[in-house]
Structures are given as structure tokens and as C-alpha cells.
């Protein structure tokens, strides 16, 4: 099972939007996907029409209780092949509840071993800001997707993640996860937008997504309707962008390089 975490310590960079819609894309492509919400905001569930506020058992219960089987905490979604482990405010207690455990940051990594046979992929939606939950997400992952908003100061978040990953590799003596894709998001055709993309290519050669996620009203709206873009507006520009990014990610993580340019060429779609 490959495990893909969506991380950026900065808030509002489209982590959840990408985690949910790309998980749906993978499921539609026939992969069995488990989406793990690791954010107290519970937005991954909300985006799929699941109100996780009172959900029990949830990801917090699962990380705390080694006897709780994954089958009890993972629930089906409206999308065939996509299951969800929901999160809510209870998760805020996690750092305190596991303070005694020296290996606390590896709990998700170990628990996911249980899902090895049942799912092809685990997608992990990480919270904003640095801390135990983000470390937990990174250490559980084989691959990272780093969404970077194409705005002023946005590069700071991406550089921060690269540093954190390098430190964790050293601390835990491992060479994974790797940053498999950096996705420029919330793009508008402005001088700053283009400058950020240029810098991303310079900082992260080979891994910047060919398709940039432009501003899209449909992508913004679908979250509040509890639907992925593929149900909400399948023929929209937002759906086309998400499909293209999904295809690229699939090719990257499944090792198919044909059709995926290794160059730094960017196709920035027109504003949707
Ligand atoms: N392509 C887009 N165009 C316009 N708005 C978008 C787009 N993608 C996502 N949004 C909106 O931007 C906001 C932030 O997106 P999202 O929740 O995915 O970010 P996040 O990185 O998960 O945030 P957080 O750090 O709080 O977890 C949401 O309101 C979402 O609906
Ligand atoms: Mg989020």
C-alpha cells in the first residue's frame, strides 16, 4: 500500500481539496483508497458529505487504542472504492494523550500496516502548522504531495516542509517519504503567480506538477456541497484540472514515466 500525505504547514493551500478529489480520482481509476483525515477541522469528511463532528470511533480513537480494528473506524463514502477515517476536535487531545510514548510520531505508520491488504492507497490529509500531527503524517507516508499557493510568502511553507522532511530522514535513519509532487495552487495569471511557479521549479526540479491548479469557483463550491468536483461539476475546468493532476500523480507514484515530462515546463490553464 502506498501512502500519500498532503502536507504544507501553511494554512489554506488546498491540501484538503487535493487529498479528497485526488483520492476520488484514484478510486474512479479502480484503486482502493483509504482517506485518513488528520486535521481537527474534519474537512476531509465534510468535503465528502460526512459530518464528522460526533463521529465515533474516529482517527483519534484508532491512534489511541491498539485493539480497535481498522474495519471499525474506516467507513464507506458515496464514492465506490473510497473509504474514510474521519477526524474531529477530539484529535486535539492527541499530543497530550500520547506524551508518555517515545514512539508517538510513528503510531499512524504502524496502524496503517493493518490496511495493507484492503487498500491500494492511503491518502493522509495533514493539518496546517507544524507539530506532532504533521510529523505523524510525514512518517506514515511513502510519498508527499506539497500544495503551494501561488501567492507572496507561499514559498516559505514549501521550503519549511523540505527542511522538516530532511530532518526526519536523518533522525529516523530512513530515505522516505519522498516529495513526489509539488502542486502550485490558487493560481491567477499575475506577475507574482508566475514568479512563484518559476521559483518552485528552481527549488524542486522535476517534481512540480505540469498542471497548475488555477482559481476555480466550482472547486471552491463543491466542498460546501459535500461532493467531489467529479459529481458536482464534472465538465468544469476545475474537474479537468483535477483529472490532469490525478493522472500525473498516478503516473508518478506507480512509476510510469511515459507521458510525464521530466522538464520544468508548465501548462498554466486559463482562469476558470
Ligand atoms: N482551485 C480553487 N479555486 C478557488 N478556491 C479553492 C480552490 N481549491 C480550494 N479552494 C478553496 O480554498 C479554501 C482552502 O482550501 P483547502 O481547505 O483545500 O485548503 P487546506 O490547505 O486544506 O486548508 P487548511 O490548511 O485549513 O487545512 C477552501 O475554502 C476551498 O474551498
Ligand atoms: Mg485542510
Report the bound ligands by name, code or SMILES: adenosine-5'-triphosphate, magnesium ion
- Largest sheet composition: 7 strands, mixed
Which fold name is given in CATH as the topology?
Rossmann fold
| CATH superfamily membership | P-loop containing nucleotide triphosphate hydrolases
Give the class-level CATH name. Alpha Beta
CATH-derived architecture = 3-Layer(aba) Sandwich
Rg over C-alpha atoms, rounded to the nearest angstrom: 17 Å
Order of helices and strands: EHEHHHEEHHEHEHEHHHH
What is the structural class? Answer: alpha/beta
Question: Order of strands across the widest beta sheet?
Answer: 3-4-2-5-1-6-7
Number of strands: 7
Average pLDDT number: 92
Provide an overview of this structure.
This protein has twelve helices and seven strands. By secondary structure, it is α/β, with parallel strands linked by helices. Helix 1 crosses helix 12 (237-253). It has a seven-stranded mixed β-sheet with strand order 3-4-2-5-1-6-7, with helices on both faces. The longest helix has 19 residues, at 154-172. The protein is globular, with a radius of gyration of 17 Å. The protein binds adenosine-5'-triphosphate and magnesium ion. Adenosine-5'-triphosphate binds next to helix 1 and helix 10.
